[in-house]
């Protein structure tokens, strides 16, 4: 299970999933109508892996309550340039392998 943050311009979106790679692809393709398709959120800028859904959901809910500044700090701790982690080699491999 993963908790993750997607971005587009000034917008941040937090979610959780069991298949991070597939979920990012769904957002990129606009598979689902809603917030992410409306604002074009498709760049994966942060994620954490959890052993089960309860932890991932709890973390998602915690982050949703945060102000943008705190979310930005979380992202910049591991990804200071806000690169699309799904496009970077080591992260791309981890997404495919489910690591």
Notes on the structure:
This protein has 99 residues and is α+β, with helices and mostly antiparallel strands. It has one domain (2-97): 3-Layer(aba) Sandwich (GIY-YIG endonuclease), CATH 3.40.1440. The protein contains five helices and three strands; from the N terminus they run ββααβααα. It has helices at 20-29, 35-39, 53-64, 68-78, 89-97; strands at residues 2-8, 11-17, 43-49. It has a three-stranded antiparallel sheet, sandwiched between helices. The radius of gyration is 13 Å and the shape is globular. The termini are close together.
Task: Summarize the entry for a quick read.
The protein is α+β, with helices and mostly antiparallel strands and 99 residues long. It contains five helices and three strands, in the order E-E-H-H-E-H-H-H.
Question: Which characteristics define this entry?
Answer:
99 residues, alpha+beta, GIY-YIG endonuclease, 3 strands
The number of distinct structural domains comes to: 1
Distance between the termini: 10 Å
In what range is the share of β-strand residues? 15-25%
Question: Going across the major beta sheet, what is the strand order?
Answer: 2-1-3
Mean pLDDT level: 83
Q: Give the H and E element order.
A: EEHHEHHH
Low-confidence stretches: none
What portion of residues is helical? 40-55%
Apparent shape = globular
Rg is 13 Å
* Discrete helix count: 5
Q: What CATH architecture label applies?
A: 3-Layer(aba) Sandwich
Overall number of strands: 3
């Amino acid at each position: 299970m993963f908790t993750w943050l997607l971005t587009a311009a000034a917008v941040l979106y937090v979610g959780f999933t069991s298949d991070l790679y597939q979920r990012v692809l769904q957002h990129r393709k606009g598979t689902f109508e809603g917030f992410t398709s409306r604002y074009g959120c498709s760049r994966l800028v942060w994620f954490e892996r959890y052993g089960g859904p309860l932890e991932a959901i709890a973390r998602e809910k915690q982050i949703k309550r945060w102000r943008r500044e705190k979310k930005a700090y979380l992202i910049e701790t591991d990804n200071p340039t806000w690169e699309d982690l799904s496009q970077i080699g080591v992260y791309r491999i981890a997404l495919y392998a489910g690591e």
